Amino acid sequence: MSENIAVLGLGLMGTALAETLLAAGHRVTVWNRSAAKADPLTAKGATGAATAAEAVASASLVIVCVLDYQAAREILDGADLAGRTVLNLTNGRPAEARDTGRLVAERGGDYLDGGIMAVPQMIGGPGALILYSGSPAAFDRYEDALKPLAEPRYLGEDPGLAPLYDLAMLTGMYGQIAGFLEAAALIASEKRPVREFTETLLVPWLHAMASAQPRLAEEVESGDYATEVSNLEVNRVGVANLVIAFEEQGVRPDLLLPMKELIDRRVARGHGAEGLSGLIEELR
Ligand code: FVH
What we know:
eight-stranded mixed β-sheet; Rossmann fold; N-(1-d-carboxylethyl)-l-norvaline Dehydrogenase, domain 2; elongated; 51% helix; alpha/beta; binds ligand FVH
């Protein structure tokens, strides 16, 4: 079913969203603070709006994708939200999503929050995922219209859930990149080929290691950190050795040090027999 959709914010991501919705046959009205960014989209059939409020008035589904929540809220200020669904795909925090959800509800609108797990080039293609949370009725109503953008995953009524899961997934990614950077620096310290190491050894190893994470997750949920593989005392010695090796190779172990500190602290508190999942107690 073709919908009237407004896209507010035409940066790299907003433009990709608007283009994909247009290609899927929706009637799309676009607005951006710097008006010129709307031109390529109006050339493809979108309607340009002179103000954000005018774009909102044209649509039943209003998608906002700008730099941050403060900008998103400023844009919605003064627009008539009654009877419309606002979908905020701006990157933010759970508390910001909950506040924005309350604000939209006070003005008679339905609110959905979203976390885009893709770069703009992936929108509309395989592998793109968007996490949604907020009004279940709004998600049911617009799920089909949103499917062309990315695989949709609805997490629940609390609007804070999409940013919470988004931030958790980004956290996993940053941890992985931190590991890659330290490993690559170690390999490069001997002028060995980093790309070959990454493709043939590191990535397969990380895949194998990642498959252990559901078991770690079970331990986190149960609070039972007993392990039959290497315990924290073994890891303490291993990571201490790693740090010395880095120093010998002339590489800074900066991204490893917080992990070492965590392991040392947990062992010092008398939990050396636990597995790595026990470290979560030091983070809570
Ligand atoms: N690009 C990516 O890979 C990531 C993927 C995951 C999700 N993020 C989030 O999406 C939001 C928008 O990101 P973007 O890539 O479109 O960012 P830009 O190309 O830099 O465009 C920023 C737009 O925001 C507008 N804007 C900024 N401040 C204001 C303001 N005070 N009032 C109104 N609009 C504002 C900006 O307008 P202009 O500078 O063109 O006039 C752009 O439309 C973001 O939350 C990512 O974290 C993308």
